[in-house]
Fold this sequence. Notes:
CATH class: Alpha Beta
Number of strands: 5
Strand order of the largest sheet: 2-1-3-5-4
Order of helices and strands: EHHEHEHEEH
Structural class: alpha/beta
Largest sheet: 5 strands, mixed
Mean pLDDT: 93
CATH topology: D-Maltodextrin-Binding Protein, domain 2
Distance between the termini: 52 Å
Low-confidence stretches: none
Oligomer: single chain
CATH architecture: 3-Layer(aba) Sandwich
Amino acid sequence: MLGGRAYRVAVSTRTKPRDLKVVESVERDHAALELMAKIYAELGIDKAKQVEGIDSQDKYAMLACGDADLYLRLPREAKPKHKSWDHAAGVALIQAAGGVVTDIDGTMLDFSTGAILSNNLGMVVTNGAIHDRVLEVVQAVKP
Length: 143
């Protein structure tokens, strides 16, 4: 048998700001880290203690299995070029585990545009329980 025993993954149910675990990209080119830090502060999240830089799309897997609660990907540029193949599987995993993934305005990601998610400016990935609050703060803080 390969891989071990299968089990169902599920997002966390954490909602208290001091309990949230946040993951973000380690690549400065991929996200507006300064803006995201403002959002974390507004949400009551201590960036130094609760935010971990993670490479690749491991961030989606961490949320799907409850090891993290929030992943923001706010673009540095006005017309970001998020590649569909970098996010499609992660979005499916999050949704299957009970979480929510939207654009920064609350719309679903549009994978119908081909290789680039040209109708989406960024990503808000959460355990679902905190999604509305995070979107509210993103909208209030974004330029």
